[in-house]
Amino acid sequence: MTVVTAQRPAGRRVLRNIGLVALPAAILAWCLTDLSLGRELMQWLPYLASGFAMNILISLCAMVLGTAVGCALGILQLVPYRLVRAPIVSYVQIFRNAPHLVLIFATTYIFPFEIVIFGNYIAFPDWVKAVIGLAIPASAYVAEITRGAIQSIPTAQWEAATGLGFSRVQALRWIILPQCLRRSLPPWMNVLASITMGTSLASLVGVHELLHAATDASTAVRRLDFTVIAYVVVMAAFFALCYPIGRLTRRLERRFLPG
Amino acid sequence: MTTNADTAIVRLEDVRLAFGQTEVLKGIDLAINKGDAVSIIGPSGSGKSTLLRCINALVTPQSGRITVAGTRVDQLTRESERIALRKRVGIVFQQYNLFPHLTVLENIVLAPTRILGVARQEAEKLARELLEKVRLSDKANAFPGQLSGGQQQRVAIARALAMKPELVLFDEVTSALDPETVGEVLWVIRDLIRDGMTSILVTHEMRFAEEISDTVVFTENGRIVAQGSPREIFHGNDNARIRQFVGGLSGARGSVRDGEGI
């Protein structure tokens, strides 16, 4: 009996992390059974890694930009002036319901490949366009999260702040938003995971990221088994990045929303 | 607008207020002197809390004059003017409404530092003095969620006092509390009134109102039905309705707690 109870947590931990272990283990096992394949993969691994670095870069930039813009929009959605609110509500609704790929295509082809500032030509690389393409839906999601979090704070908190002499902006800054932070962290991390996975879409507009790198590699090597293992590596890499985010989110949700 | 040689710190004249079709205040006249403790009693829905909220401009009446410490509250049009008033008038709510993300000390320090611009060190010193006053010195670093209702309400009182208000409004501050913790909150308020703080209390604690008040005001259906000394209201009153209300409450207090207004 005691053995069973002692083993159960360990067993659950293995089950939880099997994804993190199983994919790399399968890749390793395959490479060891066919050493020529393993050698080929080792050769291409740095190239794939450079692609993956681009995914992380795009994801981070899109989330920083999307979060900054989204927080501002979320707050402005609650402003008592309809003229301010209406365009923001439309922006949020439109881009929350737009496929990421469509937005990436749109930003890629709408923005010029270089911009002229005071006679200087500054390149506008494709990856930056992909960042904007993903930051737009991210900002729409974050705006909704922010608005929801602010509205979830009891009005009694506003009343207490007002009673003490806080203005609305001061109350928001010192009393309401700090309370929103913990509430909106779990849904924010869902957006982070979704945007991170969305970075692979940038391959379709020619950004050198992991999926693009894997396609390059499989075209160059021209071996069916290599093509398969390259895409398995892509999956394992995204899994290793997104799965911990999801796990952390669930842990935070448990901590912040008791009962 | 200044008041003329007037001893009243709060003066309401023919204050009328309606929420939509519902008339809540139907012509309130009330004068409160500096240093006085005034209790407002009466059945639920008689406009007691609304009356209190008029005094610090949380709600604005449709007509009538409200003067608080020389300020014509009913004539304030800008939010900044209302804020200036609220800095001078403390309010304590039924549900305490502490800020749950801040410790007890931070709850008290926040408004003086962020609104009045008091130096952090000075604000903290005052906060600790106030915590001692409400007998919660050992809870300075606790979060509101870790405190009992009575303790939270005492913190809320300390938080209001940290702004050094000229008067304090108490809006049914014991109605949400366990019977055991009501006493500790009343204790703190009693101390405060003895120190000479002008206090206006909306309350259902009849014995407490009788003990600490200089004036008791009985409201019903948006009107002040009677006002006078506690002795007059609780004992010498020939108004049948008041006798019935007061008698009904104090009779119920022995066995079943009055659940009104909770």
TrEMBL record, chain A:
Domain of life of the organism encoding this protein: Bacteria
Localization, UniProt: Cell inner membrane; Cell membrane
Keywords: Cell membrane, Membrane, Transmembrane, Transmembrane helix, Transport
Ranges where the ABC transmembrane type-1 domain occurs: 52-245
Pfam families recorded: BPD_transp_1
Protein topology in the membrane: Multi-pass membrane protein
TM segment ranges: 14-32, 52-79, 100-121, 228-246
PROSITE patterns associated with the record: ABC_TM1
SUPFAM superfamilies, per database record: MetI-like
Stored InterPro entries: AA_ABC_transptr_permease_3TM, ArtM/GltK/GlnP/TcyL/YhdX-like, MetI-like, MetI-like_sf
Main localisation: membrane
Family the UniProt entry places it in: Belongs to the binding-protein-dependent transport system permease family. HisMQ subfamily.
UniProt xrefs under NCBIfam families: HEQRo_perm_3TM (TIGR01726)
Name this polypeptide is given: Amino acid ABC transporter permease
Organism: Rhizobium oryzicola
From TrEMBL, chain B:
Entry membrane topology: Peripheral membrane protein
Gene3D superfamilies: P-loop containing nucleotide triphosphate hydrolases (3.40.50.300)
Subcellular location per the Swiss-Prot or TrEMBL entry: Cell membrane
Pfam families: ABC_tran
InterPro entries to which the protein is assigned, alphabetical: AAA+_ATPase, ABC_ATPase_HisP-typ, ABC_transporter-like_ATP-bd, ABC_transporter-like_CS, MetN_ABC_transporter-like, P-loop_NTPase
Keyword Endoplasmic reticulum among UniProt keywords: no
Domain spans labelled ABC transporter: 10-246
Main location: membrane
Keywords: Amino-acid transport, ATP-binding, Cell membrane, Membrane, Nucleotide-binding, Transport
One GO MF term: ATP binding
Family classification: Belongs to the ABC transporter superfamily.
Protein name: Amino acid ABC transporter ATP-binding protein
Species: Rhizobium oryzicola
